[in-house]
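Hi F.,

I've been meaning to write this up properly since the lab meeting, where we talked about keeping a consistent format for the predictions we share between groups. The idea is simple: the sequence comes first, exactly as it goes in, then the C-alpha cells exactly as they come out, then a line or two of notes. No screenshots and no reformatting. I'm using this chain as the first example so we have something concrete to point to.
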Amino acid sequence: MTSLTAPNTAAPPEEQVTPGRTRSTLARRLIPYGYLSPTVLLVVVLMVVPIVMVISYSFRDNVIVQENSVFAGFANYTKVLTDPDFLAALKNTAVFISVSTVAHLVLGLAFAMMLNTQLLSGVTKAIFRIVYILPWLFTIAVIAVIWRLLLDPSGVVNYVLRTLGVVQEGVNWLGDPDKALWAVTFVNIWSGYPFFMISLLAGLQGIPNDLYEAAAVDGTNWFQRFLHVTLPQLRPVIVSMAVLDLIWTSQQFALIWMTTGGGPLNATEMLSTYTYKQAFSEYEFATASAAAVIVLLLTMVLAFFYVRQQRER
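Output, unedited:
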C-alpha cells in the first residue's frame, strides 16, 4: 500500500543578515560618493564659499580694510546703481557683448558654409581651415599685445590705410574715446569667431542631404533652402552658442585690461574692469562686492535661459 505524504510547505528559514554583510552593503553604496567627494569639496571651497563671502561683503561697509565692519544693508547696491561709471560700464558691456555675439554668429556661419560647400577642393578647404582657426590658437595676452601694435598710430593698420588713401594721418584707435570701444569689439570678434565657425560647421555636416534634395525637387532656390532647411536645422546650435557667447563675452576682462584698461575716459569700461578697479585701485571692497553680485545675477539670467533651452532641446 502506497502512502501519500503531504508536500512540505514550511517557509524556508529567513536569511540572517550579519553585521559584516551590512557593513559591506553600506560600503558599496558609499563608494560613488567617495569618488565624488574630492570634486564636491573643490566646488564648495573654490566656488560656494567665495560666493557666500562676496555676498556677505556686499551688505557691509569697510570690509577687509578695517577689522570691524558695519552692516550697511543695501547702501552699497544703491551706491553702485547710481554711480555714473557703473552705468557707463553697463552700457559699454551691453554694446560690447551684443555686437560681438551677432558678428560671431554671422562670420562663423559664413565661414562654416564656405568650408562645407562642394565648390572647393579638399586641399583648399584644409588651407582655409588652418587660416580661419589661427585666431583661436592665441591666448588673450598675445592677442592684446599683437593688436596694440597693429592699431598703434604708427602701426600696420594705419600704414595700410594711409597707403590706400583712406586716412591722411595715423589714427589712435585705442586712445580715441569715439573709436576705442569699437576697436576692442573688433579685436574680440576677430579672436572669438573660430569657435562659432567650428560648432556651426559640425552642425552643417550633420544635416541630411535628403532634406536639400527634397527641397530642390520642390523647385526652391539656394536662399530658400538656406532659410527653410539650413537655419531650422542649425537653430539648436545657434541658440546654445549665442547664449554661451553672451555669458563668456560679458566676463571678458583680460582683453580690455591689456589693451585700454577701461579708458580712455571710461570709453571701454566694462563691468569686469569696473569691479576690479573698485576693489584693487580704490580699495572699496564692499562696493566691488555689490558690483560683483549684480554681475552674478545678470549672468545667472543668461545661464537660466541656456539651461532652459538645453532642456527643451
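Notes:
The first strand starts at residue 60 and ends at 61.
The CA atoms of residues 151 and 157 lie 6 Å apart.

If this format works for you, I'll send the rest the same way.

G.
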